[in-house]
């Protein structure tokens, strides 16, 4: 049911109506915004991090009335600053959507002032918490609505690269590693870029699925339940693991060559490479780790990468793929002939043809 207040947008209308607004404004504190927010939102906090803590402490230790008095002063001051610094040049036709934590005091104050000025501002019913419920419900529903074609393959076979080619050839792709900002292995973190929060990751998935057609196949890479430190939602993971599988196969030499290209940052930062391999000490022992460290120092990367594939990655893949993907069949595969752009494009084309056959 549409809320009776004409300036409140029903949460049930998300995400279809987000494009109707000229801006989506998150008025929560920068710390709240950093953890997760509606895709495309900009942060105009009406209380900064320190002010939010100050008001919360006053609310608990003194009284709600005292907190509201100081809060109103701070909120008014911050809204005035946003008006002067960021909004003063917007035309009368500008139409923003405003939200805070629960769709209450902070977004209500901002929406009221903007409407009194003459802009047609709307306040999101339920705020971020309402949006969060939409994300959770949508991810659960997506697990039922979408059909996934899984691209399997050993480490270094270029699954992510082939996914990119599949997308460029007009097919639908869900790239979980890109959404998680992680390549899904002990060496998989992206240099100088942090992963999103768990909630942020789920919002990224929600946003990606909103652009896809549930009546068409979605290509996805075989993943473990965790991509770096982030957990793929259980219902979605189960749906992916029950999808049809096709394997991308490449020779060890091709895989080594591709990994040296794809993980080139480790060749430039040898200390980081050694630190990451040190995480495997409990599994392989200090002597083996020291051997790998010595190969790094000598620049013997081809030999090192091949050893890591044969000793660590390949056995783990063989054990997990059979256990976690019941539709995996050894005879269902496409070959990657080399790590050239042409070879990846051809492999993608062959996968699309095989899936459509």
Descriptive overview:
It is a single chain. The protein has 357 residues and is α/β, with parallel strands linked by helices. It has 2 domains: 8-134, Rhodanese-like domain (Oxidized Rhodanese, domain 1), CATH 3.40.250; 147-356, Rossmann fold, CATH 3.40.50. Helices cover 54% and strands 11% of the residues. It has helices spanning 30-35, 49-61, 64-87, 105-117, 127-145, 159-168, 176-180, 198-210, 234-241, 252-262, 264-268, 270-278, 281-298, 301-324, 341-356, and strands at residues 8-9, 23-26, 42-43, 96-99, 122-124, 148-152, 172-174, 218-221, 226-227, 230-231, 244-249, 333-335. The strands form 3 sheets. Strands 1-5-4-2-3 form a 5-stranded parallel sheet. Helix 2 (49-61) runs antiparallel to helix 3 (64-87) and helix 5 packs across helix 8. The longest helix has 24 residues, at 64-87. The radius of gyration is 25 Å and the shape is elongated. The chain starts with 7 loop residues before the first strand and ends with a helix.
Helix content: 40-55%
Order of SSEs: EEHEHHEHEHEHEHHEEEHEHHHHHEH
Structural class: alpha/beta
Shape: elongated
Q: Please compute the radius of gyration using only Cα atoms.
A: 25 Å
Strand order of the largest sheet: 1-5-4-2-3
Distance between the termini: 46 Å
Number of separate structural domains? 2
Oligomer state of the chains in this structure: single chain
CATH architecture of the largest domain: 3-Layer(aba) Sandwich
Mind describing the biggest β-sheet? Answer: 5 strands, parallel
Strand content: 5-15%
Give me the number of helical elements: 15
Strand runs, count: 12
Low-confidence stretches: none
Assign the CATH topology of the largest domain. Answer: Rossmann fold
The averaged pLDDT comes out at 94
């Amino acid at each position: 049911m549409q809320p009776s207040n004409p300036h409140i947008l029903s949460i049930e209308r998300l995400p279809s109506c987000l494009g109707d607004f000229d801006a989506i404004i998150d008025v929560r504190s920068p710390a709240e915004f950093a953890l997760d927010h509606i895709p495309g939102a900009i942060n105009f906090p009406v209380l900064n991090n320190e002010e939010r803590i100050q008001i919360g402490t006053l609310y608990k230790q003194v009284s709600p009335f005292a907190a509201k008095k100081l809060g109103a002063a701070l909120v008014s001051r911050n809204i005035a600053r946003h008006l002067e610094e960021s909004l003063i040049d917007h035309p009368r036709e500008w139409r923003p959507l405003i939200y805070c934590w629960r769709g209450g005091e902070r977004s209500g104050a901002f929406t009221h002032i903007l409407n009194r000025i003459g802009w047609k501002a709307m306040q999101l019913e339920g705020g971020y918490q309402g949006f969060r419920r939409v994300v959770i419900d949508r991810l659960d529903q997506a697990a039922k609505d979408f059909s996934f074609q899984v691209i399997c393959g050993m480490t270094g076979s270029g699954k992510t690269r082939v996914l990119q080619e599949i997308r460029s050839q007009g097919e639908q792709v869900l790239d979980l590693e890109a959404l998680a900002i992680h390549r899904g292995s002990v060496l998989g973190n992206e240099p100088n870029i942090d992963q999103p929060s768990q909630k942020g990751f789920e919002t990224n998935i929600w946003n990606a699925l909103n652009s896809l057609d549930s009546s068409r196949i979605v290509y996805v890479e075989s993943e473990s339940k965790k991509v770096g430190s982030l957990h793929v939602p259980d219902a979605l993971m189960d749906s992916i693991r029950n999808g049809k599988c096709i394997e991308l196969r490449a020779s060890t030499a091709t895989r080594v060559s591709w990994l040296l290209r794809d993980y080139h940052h480790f060749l430039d930062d040898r200390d980081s490479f050694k630190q990451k391999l040190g995480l495997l000490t409990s599994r392989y022992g200090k002597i083996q780790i020291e051997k790998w460290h010595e190969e790094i120092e000598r620049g013997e990367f081809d030999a090192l990468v091949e050893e890591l594939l044969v000793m660590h990655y390949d056995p783990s893949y063989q054990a997990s793929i059979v256990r976690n993907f019941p539709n995996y069949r050894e005879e269902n595969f496409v070959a990657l002939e080399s790590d050239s752009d042409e070879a990846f494009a051809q492999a993608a084309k062959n996968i699309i043809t095989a899936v459509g056959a």
